[in-house]
């Protein structure tokens, strides 16, 4: 039997090591590919869940309640006086100037007094600049106080024009309008409001669900029609509650009706038309006993008088909005 030479043995050993390294590299590539597939799948699932949570949880947030009584009682800013602090300090030095022995010896009195007079000019300018800065701040603070005091008293006196003026300058619906076309408010003579939200349409609801399987791969499935419209219903209800909360946080209203408006296909003409799809009467203080963190928006409808025609497989249908009594 032929003996293996040391060179042949070394080459065989090297070949085995190279194959072992190649197999390890292949396993690592496969592991990394699998990890990337899992990461991508998890991101897609997280985005889907985040979207669902976002569009159905508007009602959980609201700007702080405005205490108009406290605002109306805020004292008027005090107009500042020119203290002339720096000027008075230098004037004191000038008035009480007493040359020292060496000042007299070297005849420095005139130079020292001249220096004090120059310091006085600088002090006067510094006092003037400081006073002007204080006046500028006062004028700005007074303008803000006067504006807030005026709007607070008008709102407390139920001046409906004040309601509209405030809404014109301070849009409480900015976050809702990220998911809706517009929000309009109408103040009625009996200190009630009609809020109409033109919702963003069914297109805002994801058509497909995303879920990571145990295998680490992503499963994307078309949402069942009933599930799709259930999400749509919760989205609309949540947005209406948020709109109502924002209005009640600002205005001392006695009552409110919130309506959702959408584009609906008129089956008799085939054309798209604006129509009210949900109308809710929300009395003042009605949210006080509700835990907004835990409610299901659509289920919470039954706490309120409302008008709705909803089909599980077709969604909202046009309705007549509620009227304020």
Question: How does the SSE layout of this entry go?
Answer:
Elements: H1 6-55, H2 68-72, H3 85-95, H4 101-105, H5 109-156, H6 160-169, E1 180-187, E2 192-199, E3 208-212, E4 218-222, H7 225-250, E5 255-265, E6 272-281, E7 305-311, E8 315-317
Give a brief description.
This protein is an alpha+beta fold and 325 residues long. 48% of the residues lie in helices and 18% in strands. Helix 3 runs antiparallel to helix 5.
Description:
The strands form two sheets. A six-stranded mixed sheet has the order 1-2-5-6-7-8. By secondary structure, it is of the alpha+beta class. The protein is built from seven helices and eight strands; from the N terminus they run ααααααββββαββββ. It has helices at 6-55, 68-72, 85-95, 101-105, 109-156, 160-169, 225-250; strands at 180-187, 192-199, 208-212, 218-222, 255-265, 272-281, 305-311, 315-317. The protein starts with 5 loop residues before the first helix and ends in an 8-residue tail after the last strand.
Give the terminus-to-terminus CA distance.
111 Å
Q: How would a crystallographer describe the biggest sheet?
A: 6 strands, mixed
Mean pLDDT: 88
Q: Level of helix content?
A: 40-55%
Classify the beta-strand content into a percent band. Answer: 15-25%
